[in-house]
Design goal:
Elements (H helix, E strand, L loop, with lengths): L29 H16 L4 E5 L1 E3 L8 H11 L4 E3 L6 E2 L1 E3 H10 L4 E5 L4 E2 H12 L5 E3 L2 H6 L3 E3 L4 E3 L15 H5 L7 H15 L19 H7 L11
Parallel strand pairs: 1-6, 2-5, 3-8, 9-10
Antiparallel strand pairs: 4-7
Helix pairs in contact: 2-4, 2-7, 4-7
Length: about 240
């Protein structure tokens, strides 16, 4: 998804404008680098090229500690509180690694394909993860301004709340996956993916240290004593059940 220049417009498809391709000698920038990679493949393979544009790929064995962070956080907390990001209006698009792999092997389509899951409310995703783990503690919804002021990062990083995006990036995880599904791409039920991720987190250890490919936190971002000052007016009751 990072090839796209517009992260604000909801529902864009593969025809959306891309970043300018990175040029040799320029400072590293992830989006333009991905565009340059696409162009290199297109130049080499022409009309035979499949340009897969995956969203957030999740599943067991994921070393990035982004989606898996939430399974580990709820498992680790048990009956203790867990801090989640602002939920109102926030969306999430994830895709199971098994679905992406199956599509790559079997696809006959060429050109650009957004290999992404359906658009979901972030609240629904976290509720599904929490229910699977059996967490019974309080869920505290953070206040945007207070989280940012405390140095809690969006999306990824050692002090982040994974899957949380800035309000102005409402289009980043709300893109169209119509070409993917129309071309035979499958989407595993969210509950199945969550069960696999939860089992993997348990097996690898919810208290393990971050690995070399980790892009997320491996422990709680805040102590229990600091949660009160980070919470918003919404106390998180909606995510229960």
């Amino acid at each position: 998804m990072s090839v796209y220049r517009d992260d604000e417009t909801v529902g864009t498809d593969e025809s959306a404008p891309r970043h300018p391709a990175a040029q040799e000698g320029e400072e590293y920038d992830y989006g333009p680098q991905k565009v340059a990679a696409e162009d290199a493949v297109q130049d080499a393979l022409g009309d035979r090229a499949l340009l897969l544009r995956p969203g957030l790929i999740v599943g067991d064995g994921d070393p990035s500690d982004r989606f898996g962070y939430w399974a580990a956080a709820f498992l680790r907390a048990l009956d203790e509180p867990v801090l989640v990001p602002p939920l109102h209006g926030r969306k999430a698009q994830i895709i199971d690694v098994d679905d992406v792999a199956a599509f790559v092997v079997a696809a006959t389509v060429t050109g650009a394909v957004n290999a992404i899951g359906d658009v979901r409310d972030l609240e629904d995703v976290l509720r599904t993860v929490r229910a699977a783990t059996g967490h019974i503690g309080q869920v505290i919804v953070g206040d945007e301004e207070r989280l940012v002021a405390e140095g809690v990062q969006y999306w990824a990083g050692p002090r982040s709340l994974p899957l949380w995006l800035p309000p102005e990036m409402g289009g980043f995880m709300t893109r169209s996956n119509a070409r993917y599904t129309e071309s035979g791409g499958t989407l595993s039920p969210l509950s199945d993916t969550v069960e696999h991720v939860m089992a993997d987190e348990r097996e690898r250890g919810v208290d393990r240290s971050a690995g070399p490919d980790s892009r997320g936190p491996r422990s709680a971002n805040c102590s229990t004593s600091s949660l009160a000052r980070l919470r918003g007016s919404d106390t998180g009751c909606r995510i229960r059940g």
